[in-house]
Design brief:
Structural class: alpha/beta
Radius of gyration: 17 Å
Strand order of the largest sheet: 1-2-7
Number of helices: 6
Shape: globular
Number of strands: 9
Helix content: 25-40%
Order of helices and strands: EHEEHEEEHEEHEHH
Strand content: 15-25%
Distance between the termini: 43 Å
Oligomer: single chain
């Protein structure tokens, strides 16, 4: 069996309806196109898992949460886009899903994000609030941001197939964020 991690970037990011596993792939940038091509290659294997993820955060590496915590502490204010919508997803939850998934023969393509959705702005506010940082969060639009990378405006993935096969149920993003921040506080003694 082959397991391949893909992304919401294989979709255009337009609209306001969550993307399900059967929606037409239409990548909006080079990253999305390479992930799409990777999916096509993996689909040629009869025993494959393609797991599409989005807005991932975890203990290791860089991520949006760590950036917000650092900027909140250093600057006391952060500017965050309010018109990028997605589902924050904790790597710990993804790891539990993978462990359960690889013990099955339920091959195919899956979306695996935490339940619920929010804007990057709302996500940043929740992060700083849970961390107890009293930083100001300013709303800006994608057009007003200094970001040059083209990102999907609507990156919400519908875990439709996961619900059908009932292997593992992803938790709500706020619950996972609370666990992550509690762990961060314990490690940093905040």
């Amino acid at each position: 069996p082959v397991m391949y991690f893909s992304t919401d970037y294989v979709f255009s990011g337009e609209g306001s309806k969550p993307w399900n596993e059967y929606d037409e792939r239409n990548p909006l940038n080079v990253y999305g196109k390479t992930k799409y091509e990777g999916e096509l290659a993996v689909e040629s294997y009869p025993k494959h898992f393609i797991i599409r993820i989005a807005w991932v955060f975890g203990k290791n590496g860089h991520n949006f949460i760590k950036t917000m915590l650092r900027l909140g502490k250093e600057k006391g204010t952060v500017s965050v886009v309010n018109d990028q919508i997605g589902s924050p997803t904790y790597t710990f939850d993804l790891a539990k899903l993978v462990i359960d998934m690889i013990q099955t023969d339920k091959y195919g393509t899956y979306h695996a994000t935490c339940k619920g959705l929010c804007s990057r702005y709302d996500f940043a506010r929740e992060i700083l609030s849970l961390a107890g940082l009293h930083a100001e969060v300013k709303e800006i639009s994608i057009a007003d941001s200094k970001e040059h990378l083209v990102r999907p405006a609507y990156a919400v993935l519908d875990n439709f197939i996961l619900r059908i096969i009932d292997v593992y149920e992803m938790p709500k993003w706020k619950q996972s964020l609370e666990e992550y921040i509690a762990e961060w506080k314990e490690e940093t003694h905040e």
